[in-house]
C-alpha cells in the first residue's frame, strides 16, 4: 500500500530533479552556488529555466511566479503563463533564463516606507537559488511554478524580508568561519549555516461559525466574546487524542506539505481547545523560513477544504492561550556540525562555551532589538500574558551550564556541581542534559541542549525578522570575541589562557541577562527592570523606536544587513502598519457593537419589557446598553492607538456582560463556547 510519505518532494525542483534534468556542468555550477553562496553564473540560466518549465508542465503547471516576502508580512506573487504566440494562430511555451533570474512586478502598491517614491514604481524580484522552486496548487486547482525570490528597489534597496535575512546569514557565516579558524577549523570555501526549526501554533474553527464573526474576518481575532464556560481549565486538550475531523485535516496537511518538500514532523493538540501545533524538522535557516511561509499558507488552504478556518493570529480569543512560533535556532559550522552541541572533547567544548558566551553578549547587548523583532499588534496580546514569555528578554541556560559560566567568570578550573574540574580547552564538561529536558517554558530565550529556542515570535509573523536580528547580533559578538582573542594571541598569549580571559570578561559584563527562574512572575519583572536594568518594552508602540536608535543603525550598517535608510523605511512601515491595524480594529469594534450587538440587546429589552418576572434582567440590560452606547461614542472619539486600545477594552467589558444576559438566540455572534468546540 502506498502512503503519503512516498510523495515527499514531488512538487519540488530540488537537487535530485536538477541532477536528473540538467547537464553535468550546469548542475555542478548551480550546486556550487547553492552550497557556498557563490554568484550565479548567468550563462546557465537558460538551461535551468527550460528544465524547470518542462518539469513543471509535466506536473500540470501553466504559470510561473516570482514568489517574494514584502514587508506586509505575508508572501506575494503575480502569475505569468508560459504561453507565447506562434504567430500562426496558436501558442508555444517558453520560459527564459532572464525571466527566471529577474522579474519586475508593478511594485507601486507594496510598502517601501519612503525608500522609493510611488511614481518610481519599479521593484525587482531576483531568483534565490538557495531555496528550491516548487509547484503550488492554489485553491482553484491551477498549478504554478513558484520561484523563491528577493525583492529590491532599483538600486538594490531591500524591500522585503528575505534580502536582509540572506545578508545576515552571510555575515554570520563570515564571523563563524573566522572563529572556527581560531579553533583550528578551516574548511576552505564552505559556509557556516544557521539552522531553524519553527514550531507553528494555530487554531481551527468551523468555517460556518467563522463566517458569522465579522471581527474574525476583518481583524483575525475576536473583539468581543464572553469566556467559554469550559475552555482550557482542565488541561484536557493538550496532547489529547486528536478528533477525527481534525485528524483528517492534519493528514491532508501533512500530505500537501510533504509534496511541497516541507519536513512536517510533529502534530498535536495544544493547550487551548481548538488549538494545535505543527513542527518541522529543522533546515538551513532561509529555506526553513520559506517553508514556514509555505506551511502557513497550506494551513489556510487545507483548512478551507475541510470546512475549517485556520486562525494564525497570536490571540484570536481573550482569556485563553494565544499562538506562538517557537524559533529553534542553531549554527552549523563550515564543517557541517552543530556548534551549539556540547562536544566530545575539551577542545570542542571550549568552542561550544565560546558560542554560548557570545550568545549572552549578543542577547544582552541587543535585548531591545530582539524584542522589537517580534513586535506586532497581535503579539502584544500574548507576550507577558502568563502563557508566553514576558516582553523582558532574558536567557535561560539551566543550572549546570550556568554553573560552568560562573566558573569561567571566576577564572576557570574549579569544582563543578557534579564534581568535575573545568579548565577551558583542557577538561571535559560534565555531561550536559541534551534535547528537551528543559521544561522551563517561561523563558523567552532558552538553551535546550543543542540549540536556542526564542519563544517570543508570534504565530502570524514571518520568522525572518527575528532571525535577521539573531544572526546579526551573534555575528557582532563573534566579531568582538575573535578580535579580542586575536589581539591576545598577537601579544604572545597561549590560546586557552587568552580564551579564558576573554570569556571571563564578557561574562562579567553580560551575566545580568541570565535568568533560570520563572519568567511569568511580577517579582522577576521588577528585578529585571529595577535591579538588572533590562529593557521592558511592553507594547509595539514602546518597542518600535528601538529601530531608530543609533545602536541599531550602527549595528545593521556595520554588517551590511540594512543601511540606515533601509532601517528607517522599516520603522516607517511597521509604525504605520501598527496604527492602521489598531484603527481597523477600533472601527470594526464600533461597527459590530452599533449594528449587531446593541440592536440585539434592544430586542431583548423589548421582549422582556412586558414580563414583570424578568424586570431585574431588563434593568440590567438597559443600563449595560446605555453604557455600551456611550462606549461606542468614546471609541469613535478616541484618537491614536493607545486611546483606541483602551476604549476597545472598556467597550468589550460592557458588551461581554451583555452577552451573558441577552438570550442566546438573539445574540448574533457565535459564542466562545461554540467557536472553541471543533
Ligand atoms: P519542543 O516542543 O519540545 O520544543 P519540538 O519537537 O516540537 O519540541 O520542536 C523542536 C524543534 O527544534 C523542531 O522543529 C526541531 O527540528 C528543531 N531543532 C532540533 N535541532 C535543531 C537545530 N540543530 N537547529 C534548529 N532547530 C532544531
Ligand atoms: Mg520547542
TrEMBL record:
Transmembrane segments: none
InterPro entries in the record: Gln-synt_C (IPR040577), Gln_synt_N (IPR008147), Gln_synth/guanido_kin_cat_dom (IPR014746), Gln_synth_cat_dom (IPR008146), GS_Type-3 (IPR052725), GSIII_N (IPR022147)
Domain GS beta-grasp: 62-156
Sequence ranges assigned to domain GS catalytic in this UniProt record: 161-597
Domain of life: Bacteria
Sequence similarity: Belongs to the glutamine synthetase family.
The protein, known as: Glutamine synthetase III
Source organism: Pontiella agarivorans
Lineage: Bacteria, Pseudomonadati, Kiritimatiellota, Kiritimatiellia, Kiritimatiellales
